[in-house]
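Action item from last week, closing it out:
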Amino acid sequence: MDRPEYRSVGKSVRKKDSMQLLLGKPVYTEDIAPDALVVKLLRSPHANAMVKTIDTSKAKKVPGVVDVYTWEDVPDQRFSNAGQTYPETSPYDRLIIDRHVRFVGDVVAIVAAENEKAAQTALSRIKVEYDVLEPVLDFRTAKDNPVLVHPEDNWHMLCDLGGDNTRNLVGTTSDAGGDIEAVLADCDMVLERTYHTKAYNQAMMETFRTFTQLDRYGRLHVISSTQIVYHVRRILSHALGIPKSRIRVEKPRIGGGFGAKQTAVCEVYPAFVTMKTGRPALCVFSRKESQTCGSPRHEMEVKVCLGANNDGRIRALGVTTLSNSGAYGEHGWATVGLTGHKSIPLYTGSLEAFKFDANVVYTNMQPSGAYRGFGATQGQFAVETAVNELAAKLGRDPVELREQNMVREGMSMPAYFGEVANACALDRCMQHCSDMFGWKEKFPVRDMGNGKVRAAGVAMSMQGSGISGIDVGSVTVKLNDDGGYMLLIAAADMGTGCDTILAQMVAEHMECPLEAVSVFGADTDASPYDSGSYASSTTYVTGMAVEKACTQLKERLCAIAAEALGCDAAELSFEGGCVRHEATGRTVSLPEIAAKSQCNCRLAPEATAQHSSPVSPPPYMVGMVEIELDRETGVVEVLDYAAVVDCGIPINPALARIQVEGGIVQGIGHTLMEDVTRTPKGAIRESSLFTYRLPTRLDTGRINVEFEHSYEPTGPFGAKSIGEIVINTPGPALAQAIYRATGVWHRELPILPEHILLAKPEERES
């Protein structure tokens, strides 16, 4: 497609923080935190219990221990840890410490000590007597179970979303279009399948950590590895019972988040200690704590009912989802909606009716939260695998079947809130990916000898660009004395490169080199309000705020120059390094404007703008994988992974490519190796990276990423999002490839070698 040639946008430039990171400069929370009290947490060994008695006397006598806090010391004020726009869609179901512990790892006591050794010794000397209760450990039996995870009277939700703690319900949702029962009755074939995905851990390099102190004004100053500075401020205000005006939250560099740090997992504990002692405090989660007490992906069971004709037309699609929120309800309702709304619309092409129902339930397991893909990953594994199963039953090429039924540009998507696919290159993504992968040659199963076979699989995906009608992005753009610019943001760069991408947009709008744009963020005392970095919102939503702010700033600079030239601002034009008077050719340079703004001037050379979008235009993606499977061992080797993505116009193609590659690797890990199992008492077995196996570069084969450009008219420079969609295609594509190699459909992730070897006869295709 034809598109303008830009100076900064569309260029693969180096991330602004790259050299600091490569040189090992102190940029992370622990690097910049001064000496502080060490905060450690005593955790419950039981999935469901009441603390009968707790004796902290011996712990308090340990040299170096400052204090030990229990449920008796904290406010009786329930809150939510979810980093969401207020009013949150998550229930207020937490206390800082609760007498009622609800999962193995729930907090029983907080220890504050001068050093690590003293804190650990104190933990071992706290004596707790529990009244152990029966836990709810099967999310399929949680709804209306006589055992209540949250029996308390002060449980409440700010939004009426079907939540009911007396039924173990976090929330419910449903949507429908057309008469699905009538259409199914008229279909030649109805396929009903049930799929299951587990509670995957984000396993980011930097675990959860937060430093807190009182500043020189007595305010709570929080430095945290978080994606949501403004939401953390609100969460702490609710939990501690202090005004938001007394809290400042900032983030340094973040060593990975992938959605885990959209939940305020650890911030409240050092904050509470600082407010009690008046001293700085630091809480750093161990890897075990991050694995067993963090904020993993929601375990889900997704039932798919698909109706089609023998000619391949998919006419009806039903999705029913059951989501396991665990002991607390963070992000439960928001996440489950994407299982239907981001999977069903992919097949808008011939769809006559759809139905989507979902329940989110409490259990006595580790609470779940946000993870890259945010529900779409689970839903698309189910729907895309079901479509691949349909292709097998019909004897159709799954690529051709998708081309026959996929959403295309200009179509209205009833299952996606009626949004129109203004920019959709999914058809071109499919063709492009098929050509570069060599689909026609690789799809047939090939016997390689020695018990090894090669096979291929395909899947497609859509996501969103921010949460429509909810997410807010804001920026401030300021002219510096030297004619450069300062960009102030509250979006959180967690390795995604959003600092660089937003700066590229400023440079393009203001017609200056990228080096002339400095970025500051994120700090609630200085940055304008932003929902934070999640839901693939930053480029699309905050990027539009950049566009608005730059437009306003140009007008402001012309107005300041008009005072200097003694003319009307309408006679002036902004020309990058200066403002020009059209009639006379006289110019005023940016440094001159900056100097003028500091003396006898009524206008500040800066602009703040905010943006929220009523729509969330989807990016689209196609993924194809080739595997070699050893029938004697069940081991799957990924040989090639080809991906083509439509993210609109990539602002920085190199960073976009890295996002895609990283997401594909994570998806491969989810499918083939990352496993979460529990003991009969509800404890997670995979508590370290020795037992929770993550993919390495040796596990992912060759990854080839290319782009098909569309132009999104509601996005900055035609851009959409890319951060989340990239994790969604490996699961169903690999499941299909394994089926092609073995004749067995695996409907639960992960698919481990032992699952392949021990597949039951009823799982085999009839």
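Closing note: The chain is about 25% helix and 25% strand.
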